Amino acid sequence: MSIPLELSNIIINNVDNKEDILACRLVSRDFLSLTTPRVFRVLNINGGDRQSTSAIIELANTPDIAEHVRVIVYRHNDDDDDEDMVAMAASSLSHLGKFALLESIRFYFPNTYVEWGPDEMSTDRRTQISIFESIATNPPPISLHELEIHSLLALPNPAFRLPGFADFLKPLKKLVIKTNSDDSGESVYCDESYMDFWKTDVARLLMSPAALTSITLDSDLYCDGPYSVWDAVTFPDLTSLHLGMIVLNNNQNIGVEKFISRHGSTLVTLELMSCPADVDQENPNPHARKWSDIWARFEQTLPRLNTFIFDPMPGRPQEGASARDGEDYRGYAYFMIESGYISLFDDPPQDEDVDRMAFEHLQDVIRARQDLE
After folding, report:
1. In this model, does residue 8 exceed pLDDT 50?
2. Fewest CB within 10 angstroms: 21, 89, 91, 346, which?
3. Pairing between strand 42-46 and 104-108?
4. Are 136 and 207 in contact (CB under 8 A)?
5. Are strands 240-246 and 277-278 parallel, antiparallel or unpaired?
6. 78 near 119, Cβ under 8 Å?
7. What is the pLDDT of residues 45-104, one digit of tens each?
8. Taking the CA of residue 219 as centre, how many other CA atoms within 13 Å lie in the half-sphere pointing to its CB?
9. pLDDT greater at residue 121 or residue 256
């Protein structure tokens, strides 16, 4: 006796364990057809495992399975330094175009790395270049709407300059970029490669999509970010913006503050995590922007803002709270050529209470908007 299709669906929808779902595929043809979309909706690739990369190629060339894949998650571990494996991982990603309904790709690269030197490129860097060159040469389908790159090396990647990579980015609606800088302990702020990465590569990543609605840009070091984007680019459909460790310029007419305000007609969600305001110590400006000024501006220029998250709040860290090296006052920083942005102040750059009251007032305004919806 066959089980009614509706009942089969109910049974399968209450199975959470992946091994049990795989077992369900063996029960009957109906179970097979109902479970296959769930089993293969998300594919995980281990970049250092031959079996994993080979399986992706096999699945890509099996149309009855490939049509169900919506998300691909790629992970490359610290110890995946076999050159053959790097090539095989890149080769497996050249088949992305066969997943006709693919919606999202998420890359997770190692959290730390050290560049080997000017004459010898690290395996981590070669891996990222090879992978993105493979994608640029064989771009995924236009159904792709989300891209996440975690631990993107903060060095120029020639793959980003290929025309095919711009085609790959064009249909994106959501873009997540989290950077990873050289962990050798040497300052990168005056390194031309590091500056070129932000000026050119990150700008290309952000400007190539035609209609971004959500941007996440997390730096692992305090930095100004891609100035060409902040000063000149508008994303007409942008509703969500998350920035991490991006420094706000002390001039309200340039940089991130102006960029955010320029999107007031669309921006609904704004998150600023460990984003200091720049207070130039060498050339003190009595009109330099304080957070109270910035939040007052957001109150006026972001009429659709429904969610605003800012952390940590400006001020001295509480006793016992963790703090970054070179930080004894949160929310503000200044640039030093030998060490980059630091937050060490003999005197507080701002009255904590003034900033706190401005923040609370902005949140009150946002809550009032929510009550009216």
Report:
1. no
2. 346
3. unpaired
4. no
5. unpaired
6. no
7. 888 788 888 888 999 999 988 998 999 999 987 555 566 777 888 888 888 989 999 999
8. 23
9. 256
- Continuous segment of H or E residues that includes residue 106: strand 104-108
Most confident of 50-54, 244-248, 251-255: 244-248
pLDDT of residue 1: 43
Amino acid at 103: E
Sign of the dihedral through C-alpha 248, 249, 250, 251: negative
Alpha helices in 247-339 (DSSP H): 255-262, 291-301
Tell me what the pLDDT averaged over the chain comes to. Answer: 84
CA gap 325, 146 in Å, rounded: 34
* Phi and psi based region of residue 341 (left: phi greater than 0; alpha: psi -120 to 50; beta: remaining): beta
How far is 292 from 276, CA to CA, in rounded Å?
Answer: 13
Q: What is the pLDDT of residue 289?
A: 86
Cα–Cα distances in angstroms (integers) from residue 173 to residues 90, 143, 176, 249, in the given order:
24, 10, 10, 27
Q: What is the pLDDT of residue 85?
A: 72
Place 153 in a pLDDT band, splitting at 50, 70 and 90: very high
Q: Which two tokens stand for residue 305?
A: 């803002």
End-to-end CA distance of the chain: 52
CB 108 within 8 A of CB 152: no
Q: Please give the C-alpha separations between residue 31 and each of 7, 27, 35, 63, in angstroms, as whole numbers.
A: 11, 6, 6, 19
**Which residues does residue 340 pair with via DSSP β-bridges, in sequence order?**
336
DSSP-based three-state secondary structure for 50: helix
| Helix, strand, coil percentages in the chain from 3-state DSSP, rounded to 5 | 40, 20, 40
pLDDT at residue 167 above 80? yes
Report which of 169, 166, 160, 154 is spatially closest to residue 124, judged by C-alpha positions.
Answer: 154
Q: Flag whether the pTM goes above 0.85.
A: yes
Q: Which residue has the higher pLDDT, 42 or 359?
A: 359
Distances in Å between the Cα of 235 and the Cα atoms of 212, 239, 272, 319 are 7, 9, 18, 41
